[in-house]
Amino acid sequence: MRREDLVTHERQLHSLADVIEGYAQLGVRVEEEHRRVPAHRLIATQNAIELEKYELVLPLVREGLLDVPVLVEEHFTDRGYVRYLIDGHTRTRASIDVGRQSVDAFVIYSTAGDWLSNFVRVAEHYGNVYVKDLPIVPRGVCP
C-alpha cells in the first residue's frame, strides 16, 4: 500500500454522496452533518484492520497529515445514539492509538428515526465490535 492509495477529502465526499444516493434509491431520506464524534464508541462494519495500511496511516494521523473526515451512520434507538463507522476504520483506530478522543466525521442520520441499514446488519454479523477493539492483522489473515 502506498500513500497515494489513501483516501482524500474529495474522494470521501464522493463516497458520502454515493451512500446518500443509495438510500434515496431505497426511499430512505437521510441528512448529513459534518461534526466531531466520540472515537471510542464507533461500531465497526468490518472485522479487522490491515497491518500494512495501519503502519502507513499511524504516523500520518499522528502528524496531522491525514485529516480526512470518516463516514459515520448514526441511529437513534431505545439505547440512545448508536454510531456505525462506514469508512475510516484505520484512521479512527490510529486516532485512538495516538490518544484522540474524537474524530472528524460526515454523519449520516434520518430525522424520521431509525431505518433499515445494511451497515447495521454487517456490524451485527461481526458482533457489534468497537473500532478500538478490532484486531490488527497482516494482509490476507482473517480473524
Describe the 3D structure.
- The chain is of the alpha/beta class and 143 residues long.
- It has one domain (3-137): Conserved hypothetical protein from pyrococcus furiosus pfu- 392566-001, ParB domain.
- The chain has four helices and seven strands.
- It has helices spanning 9-25, 51-62, 89-97, 118-125, and strands at residues 31-38, 42-43, 49-50, 70-77, 80-87, 102-109, 136-137.
- The strands form two sheets. A five-stranded mixed β-sheet has the order 1-6-4-5-2.
- Strand 4 and strand 5 form a beta hairpin.
- Helix 2 (51-62) packs across helix 3.
- The longest helix is centred in the first third of the chain and has 17 residues, at 9-25.
- The two termini are 20 Å apart.
Architecture blueprint of SSEs:
Layout: H1 9-25, E1 31-38, E2 42-43, E3 49-50, H2 51-62, E4 70-77, E5 80-87, H3 89-97, E6 102-109, H4 118-125, E7 136-137
Helix pairs in contact: 2-3
